[in-house]
Amino acid sequence: MVERTVFFLSDQTGVTAETLGHSLITQFSAKNFRQMTLPFIDTEDKAREAVRTINAVQEQGAPRPIVFSTLVQGEYRAILKEANGLHLDIFDVFLEPLARELDEEPSFEPGRAHGMSDIDAYMKRIEATNFALANDDGGMSRNYDVADVILVGVSRSGKTPTCLYLALQYGVYAANYPLTDEEFESGKLPDFLVKQKEKLFGLSIDPDRLRQIRKERRPMGKYSSAQQVRFELRETGKIFRRYGIPNVDTTKFSIEEISSRILDSTGVERRVRP
Amino acid sequence: MVERTVFFLSDQTGVTAETLGHSLITQFSAKNFRQMTLPFIDTEDKAREAVRTINAVQEQGAPRPIVFSTLVQGEYRAILKEANGLHLDIFDVFLEPLARELDEEPSFEPGRAHGMSDIDAYMKRIEATNFALANDDGGMSRNYDVADVILVGVSRSGKTPTCLYLALQYGVYAANYPLTDEEFESGKLPDFLVKQKEKLFGLSIDPDRLRQIRKERRPMGKYSSAQQVRFELRETGKIFRRYGIPNVDTTKFSIEEISSRILDSTGVERRVRP
Fold it and tell me: Which of A174, B124, B141, B242 is 20 to 30 A from residue A258's alpha carbon, by CA?
């Protein structure tokens, strides 16, 4: 089967076009999409260059490409339409009904999404990231009073990337604390965590999956043995039940999904929006 | 002016609806949108609950809400359409032309975007995140041989969050190295960086903005003084020119934009896609 190219065109980062396009193409089984992002198309030259890139694909005998685009400026959108492909343009489709509803003309200024329009949002995300780093793995500051949420779970259950994602994407202050032998032997959480009980959120994971992840780090030894992994997860379950800690099984979820489920379940507010 | 509510509905995380909707509403000047995400609408009960939430807004006398939705399953989409609002549904609009083009029926299975469909992608993002953490701030592993890119710049120019974003979003291996007095006095980069010259990418920043950011951390002293900040940025500029390091001014950009510009400028390939 010949590879089909999917283009994501944008006058900005291309994140919106990528996210939208990815949602849609995953509805189709064809696994051999070649994905290509052409960001920052903000001059006539760049628009014409993009047209050449898109048309070059078909000259190589491939099926006509699919083109997701989120360009704001009509002038460059018109140029891009000259490219041979299936054009799916979110501004074409949604801007007009939105303008009618809001009784206002769109600004047609590029770069207001994902832009630095909001320095405050930038600072919040940076500060949340610093918080996550300083409060990672039970370490350093344990500044749990200002945390929005404190993730608990065994080593490699996904705590660190989830905390960083919550910080970068939503400006949420997420700390994490690893459950280790200390907790498993006593069956108890340390007092400084019990005091923050309503902020705790658990990450659980399937034993086989955890072994697989741990083996990437340390292939041999107790750390990734079936027995140890089962023991840790069994004891973790007891602790979650003992303290009534809400939790999510991370086995089948991406970092985005784990993060969304935490926000949804805890009701923690996003401090910034993507 | 009465607040207008914008809903983002999804049977998954809501990230796609949020990203799309945010791109569109930033085209309008109204600043007082109230944004609300209703994720994981994957049962009839949850769909009916969402309808109640949406309708409740108008009962309070507010203008009718704008509803961005990315639900896959027709059954729940039909229920949600009963809610009073301006519905902008990306699946309604784009799925049909895409199906025709690909000559294939969509699966209508929720959760294939942002899903754990790809364990390999999850692992890549986790590993890239661990790499960024271990190679942050010139520290620890300095495992630059396997880096895709090495960011250089002064303290607080945005290196750490950018590296973490590149890792989490794209699975890119991004290290960073801070420029400090050592480099400024000699005017030179250390040999282990010069050896990786083609991987270096610089972050520059406006002096006033850098002062503002540094003051958040340490309000007093040399670190955030006008003189020091100007000195560091002047010397940084010399080093960028001496070694021909491509660079981006982070002053006006969000973390997404800085990241996209780095990928665009260096040609580093995304290892995973959002």
Answer: B141
CATH number, residue A127: 3.40.50
Token pair recorded at residue B6: 């914008």
Backbone angle region of B108, left / alpha / beta, with phi > 0 → left and psi within -120 to 50 → alpha: left
Q: Choosing among B8, B10, B19, which should be mutated to test the A contact, i.e. which has the most A CBs within 10 A?
A: B19
ipTM of this complex: 0.84
Question: Amino acid letter at A92?
Answer: D
- Judge if B223 and B91 occupy the same domain: no
**pLDDT tens string A106-123:** 888 765 554 445 678 888
Instruction: Report yes or no on A126 lying in a domain.
Output: yes
How many folded domains does chain A comprise? 2
Residue with token string 């754990």: B116
pLDDT at res. B116: 47
Rounded CA-CA distance B49/B59 in Å is: 15
Choose the closest CB to B98 out of A24, A123, A251. Answer: A24
Optimal mutation site among A3, A23, A108, A216, interface B, most CBs of chain B within 10 A: A23
Percent of chain B residues past pLDDT 70, beyond the cut: 95
A158 touches chain B (CB under 8 A): yes
Q: Could you tell me if residue A142 is left (phi over 0), alpha (psi between -120 and 50 degrees) or otherwise beta?
A: left
Nearest to A161 among B168, B255, B260 (CB): B168
What global pTM score does this model have?
0.86
